[in-house]
Design a protein that fits this description.
Length: about 190
């Protein structure tokens, strides 16, 4: 049997085994994703596997570089990949996707026993930016003129329900000012 025939047979088997399973996703005829664990489980991870041209005689490419795995530490990812590589070596030359996926499901607790959820660098940067932004906003607020209680009461007394001053509220002051200027000229 040629490598392509082996791949086609294994692909058909995977499609029939994992039909309707939301843990398995076929990205292309030679690339797959398999989620180990539930979506809401902090110890779940997503394996991305792609077949090279001469699979199963050569090892599939296994990756944990998906966004779903951003909470896994580099050490945890490396540990999972090393254990998966051991399984690949043991099954080299045979159709191994089902075996790998099932082994990962059964070994999830062992693979994730030292897992400590990490906060991604992107989150840390954005939180510090938020902190800096809130600090600058509070500095701007400090520069704003502070009104006394009496001034606030007087201002509230002059405003309507929208907080706006009624049209012409300062006309009296304008008229006084213009009449004073006229009187001083005369």
């Amino acid at each position: 049997m040629t490598a392509n025939e082996d791949q086609e047979m294994e692909l058909e088997a995977l499609r029939s085994i994992y039909e309707g399973d939301d843990c398995f996703k076929e990205l292309s005829p030679v690339s797959f994703q398999f989620r180990v664990g539930d979506l809401d489980d902090s110890k779940s991870f997503l394996l991305e596997v792609s077949w090279p041209e001469n699979y199963p005689e050569s090892a599939p490419c296994i990756s944990l570089d998906t966004f779903f795995n951003n909470r896994l530490s580099a050490q945890t990812k490396q540990y999972i990949l090393s254990k998966m590589s051991e399984q690949v070596e043991a099954n080299l030359g045979t159709a191994m996707m089902y075996t790998l996926f099932e082994w990962a499901k059964e070994s999830k607790e062992t693979l994730m026993e030292n897992h400590q959820p990490v906060t991604s660098a992107v989150t840390l940067i954005s939180s510090s930016d938020v902190m800096n932004n809130s600090t600058s906003v509070s500095k701007k607020k400090e520069k704003k003129e502070q009104l006394t209680k009496a001034q606030k009461r007087k201002l509230i007394g002059r405003t309507d329900n929208k907080g706006e001053l009624p049209r012409g509220w300062n006309w009296v002051d304008v008229i006084k000012h213009t009449t004073e200027q006229r009187e001083s000229k005369c």
